[in-house]
Design goal:
It is built from 15 helices and 14 strands. It has 438 residues and is of the alpha/beta class. Helix 3 runs antiparallel to helix 11, helix 4 packs parallel to helix 11 and helix 14 packs across helix 15. The protein is globular. Bound molecules: pyridoxal-5'-phosphate.
């Protein structure tokens, strides 16, 4: 079956999704958010339970997207639902602390060794925004460094060189700063130093050359997206420390990898860390924290410090309740089981690709995974940009038809949930087999 036939069958199966998309696009300028669009039009989901989603045309899918990796427990988890209900009954938001924010703050600081203090906000975007501002204030330096291909949310400072066209990206070992979207302040690019992923020698050179003006390096290990060497992550820590530049570790996706986050697995201790996604149990959340001497700039209880962070909905009690109920289930044992499913998936898919001589590979860190059509390793943005994208959308449609939803046709940053077991993983491997044959 060719790509056109698969798309035609997708259209036949999704009349109601198309109707709802057409109705909404007029009011929401296309899809309601960028990540909800893919051609010819995205599916509209009706409900979720456990590892399943049902679309508005009545089809059931095993969810391998899990709301951009946020739903680590799957959908409608009973303990999260109960915690949310209990919090709702106390009033949604009371204009004052309720105590639950200190509970989740304590739970996070107990899990992650480098966390001495933490603040909660509404999204990963806000977390990286505040962490960067704090790093600038603490260091009294203005530039930031980020990695080419790194995504840290929707604000000017970090929306530089997220997915630069290769003909504008400059030399691989000293990439240019390329604004990612229209409307970004021209100063964002001039204030950003772009570092190459997977090249510690180049990172060392660039950080050394700019150390006097660099407030921080923000680093997302691209968990489940790039084949990241733990040694590279450790080198980034060592380089930033040696040049006296703060390291902000973006664990917004990676935190689901282990009890203490991916930093515990890699054995690194960032100065600040950003969190999000799973920490809100499916509700809008972000968090950032780290060294007490940096975070205590927010502590105005002993007199004004000149620093301030707040927000009407920051540390929202319902999100905090959902997050706490989620963290309680993210035990080391449960995460080991989940990561075991990730390993089973990677081994199953890689064996299939080898058997069929298909130049494809699975990148998997813990329970986050991506599928690429590539002969060689996908360890940097440039390698990712060079992968063959043509088979992705037909495979996505074929998987949908077989009852597997991978979130979006790019098949990147997919994720597993604790509601799954081995049968779902083996089923997905078999479905990929069938999809590739088609
Ligand atoms: C690594 C990383 N950092 C930051 C963000 C931004 O988080 P949010 O979408 O909650 O603003 C994302 C979102 O996908 C992410 O993957």
């Amino acid at each position: 079956m060719n790509a056109e036939e698969l798309e035609a069958r997708y259209r036949q199966q999704s009349h109601r999704s198309r109707e709802l998309f057409e109705r909404g696009r007029y009011y929401t300028a296309g899809a309601a958010k960028g990540a909800y669009y893919y051609p010819p039009y995205p599916l509209t989901m009706d409900r979720g339970e456990g590892c399943y989603l049902w679309d508005v045309d009545g089809h059931r899918y095993i969810d391998c997207g899990n709301h951009h990796t946020a739903q680590i427990l799957g959908h409608a988890d009973p303990a999260v639902a109960a915690a949310v209900q209990a919090q709702l009954q106390k009033g949604v938001a009371l204009g004052a602390a309720t105590g639950i924010e200190s509970e989740i703050a304590r739970a996070m600081c107990r899990r992650v060794d480098s966390l001495e203090r933490i603040r909660f906000v509404n999204s990963g975007t806000e977390a990286t925004l505040h962490a960067i501002r704090l790093a600038r204030g603490f260091s009294q330096k203005g530039k930031i460094a980020k990695f080419e291909g790194g995504y840290h949310g929707n604000h000017d400072a970090v929306e530089v060189s997220v997915a630069p066209p290769l003909d504008q990206a400059g030399p691989a070992d000293a990439p240019y700063a390329v604004p990612t979207a229209g409307g970004i302040s021209p100063s964002a690019a001039s204030e950003a130093l772009i570092l190459p992923f997977d090249d510690e020698e180049a990172v060392d050179k660039l950080v050394a050359a700019h150390a006097d003006e660099l407030a921080c390096v923000i680093f997302d290990p691209k968990c489940g997206v790039l084949e990241t060497r733990p040694d590279f992550a450790r080198a980034v820590r060592e380089i930033t420390r040696r040049h006296d530049v703060l390291l902000i570790f973006d664990e917004i996706v990676a935190f689901r990898s282990a009890w203490g986050g991916l930093q515990a697995v890699y054995g690194i201790d960032p100065d600040l860390t950003c969190f999000g996604k799973v920490v809100g149990g499916g509700f809008p959340v972000g968090a950032f924290g780290g060294r007490a001497d940096i975070m205590d700039l927010f502590d105005n209880s002993q007199g004004p410090t000149g620093f301030f962070q707040s927000g009407t909905f920051s540390a929202h009690p319902v999100a905090m309740a959902a997050g706490l109920a989620t963290l309680e289930q993210m035990t080391a044992k449960n995460l080991d089981r989940l990561n075991g499913l990730g390993t089973r998936l990677k081994e199953g898919l890689d064996a299939l690709f080898a058997e069929q001589s298909i130049p494809a590979r699975t990148v998997c860190t813990g329970s986050v995974f991506s599928l690429y059509f590539s002969e060689g390793p996908v360890a940097s943005y440039r390698a990712l940009a060079a992968t063959d994208k043509a088979p992705l959308q037909p495979l996505f449609f074929s998987l949908l038809e077989q009852g597997y939803f991978l979130g979006q046709p790019g098949l990147g940053m997919c994720s597993l949930s604790l509601a799954m077991d081995e049968s779902h993983i083996d089923g997905l491997v078999a479905a990929v087999h069938k999809g590739l044959a088609a």
